[in-house]
Amino acid sequence: MDTDLVAALDIGGTKIAGALVDGDGTLLVRAQRPTPAREGAEAVMGAVDEVLGELTASPLWARAGSAGIGSAGPVDAGAGTVSPVNVPGWRGFPLVERVQKTIGGLPVALVGDGVAMTAAEHWLGAARGYDNALCLVVSTGVGGGLVLGGSLHPGPSGNAGHIGHISVDLDGDPCPCGARGCVERIASGPNIARRALADGWLPGPDGDATAAAVAAAARAGDPVATASYERAAQALAAGIAATATLVEIDIAVIGGGVAGAGDVLFTPLRRSLADYATLSFVRGLTVAPAVMGTDAGLVGAAAAAIALR
Questions:
Q1: Which residues, in sequence order, are CB contacts of 246 under 8 Å at separation 6+?
Q2: pTM to 2 decimals?
Q3: Domain check: are 301 and 276 in the same one?
Q4: Is residue 145 a contact partner of residue 164, using CB atoms and an 8 Å limit?
Q5: Are both 144 and 284 inside the same structural domain?
Q6: Which InterPro entries match (predicted)?
Q7: Same-domain pairing of 302 and 239
Q8: Low-confidence ranges of the chain (pLDDT < 50)
Q9: Residue 182 is part of a domain; what is its CATH number?
Q10: Are both 91 and 160 inside the same structural domain?
Q11: CA 122/CA 251 separation, integer angstroms
């Protein structure tokens, strides 16, 4: 029988999603479970197995020839293990081996979630047609991935392009990763909200103190909220410019919940980029919002699986 489909898994701290995907990137069968992130390793793997169980029960499963996993990181693609920061029960967890056991030994590709999003945006999204791209996920954390010379560049461990932990403020706040002044420590959603609150921004009557609420306040003209987004944009611009200078990218694609702020983020980001991306070969860099949305992880995991063929 023709094995023209791939299985895809998107594993994060909130949900575990799975799909059977065809060669055009269409998701034909879907399954999803909440991630029991505060429970032990086997409870989390149990949720993965339930998702895979739904996929293998489909009549289309016989057409699946490989599987791809996009996981919150860090991941170690060489060892087939994952240690997601937001899933404490998994440290060096042998995810590839366990998934292979569940799906009957099919080949499995593992990439970090930022790399998966990059694969999706390059295949079907905002980076399509670009040979050199950086894609960022700006959300609870800041992740990313690279396309170089027309191909996904995950690096030996599957983490290349992890822009969130480039230091852009040498004497800045300590980051949970152990460094100081990382892009993530300044530009992630929780840190945008934390800085706005520390500088005197007050949530509305509903008490919503998320980055989305800060964006709404900035849109309404609140100067403290605006300043917090401008600082985040500056950190992202510095990280993007450093990456562009190092590897010569043509486009930076930005997705994740924080990108939902729209012009509140993108206007100061483009302005700051002009201050940092100053050399002749990086001045023409395009910045665009991601378009693949919540399916990016699954589509990108499928792209990684297709590459195994």
A1: none
A2: 0.92
A3: no
A4: no
A5: yes
A6: ATPase_NBD (IPR043129), ROK (IPR000600), ROK_cs (IPR049874)
A7: no
A8: none
A9: 3.30.420.40
A10: no
A11: 11
Render pLDDT for 240-261 as a digit per residue (tens, 0 to 9).
999 999 999 999 999 999 999 9
Could you tell me which of 32, 30, 45, 38 has the C-alpha nearest to residue 13?
38
Q: What is the model's pLDDT at position 85?
A: 82
Nearest to 166, CA basis, from 153, 179, 152, 154: 179
Can you list the alpha helix ranges (DSSP code H) found in 31-104?
41-56, 95-102
Q: Count how many domains the chain has.
A: 2
What is the DSSP secondary structure assignment for residue 89, as one 8-state letter?
Answer: T
User: What amino acid is encoded at 30 in this protein?
Assistant: R
Contacts of 303 (CB under 8 A, 6+ apart): 25, 68, 116, 119, 120, 122, 123, 152
* CA dihedral over 254, 255, 259, 262, signed as positive or negative: positive
Closest by CA to 128, choosing from 8, 292, 257, is: 292
- Residue 232: CB partners within 8 Å, gap ≥ 6? 186, 187, 191, 192, 258, 265
Could you list the beta-strand ranges (E) of 93-245: 108-112, 133-138, 142-148, 151-152
In terms of domains, do 273 and 154 share one? yes
Print the domain residue range for 71.
Answer: 5-112+295-306
Residue 121 included in any domain: no
**pLDDT computed for residue 27 by the predictor:** 97
Same domain, 56 and 104: yes
Q: With contact defined as beta carbons under 8 Å apart, do 183 and 254 qualify? A: no
How many whole angstroms separate alpha carbon 292 and alpha carbon 149?
Answer: 22
Q: Tell me which residue has tokens 């023709």.
A: 2
**Does residue 198 share a domain with residue 89?**
no
Distance set, CA 2 to CA 7, 22, 63, 304 (Å): 14, 12, 6, 19
Same domain, 261 and 130: yes
Length of the chain equals: 309
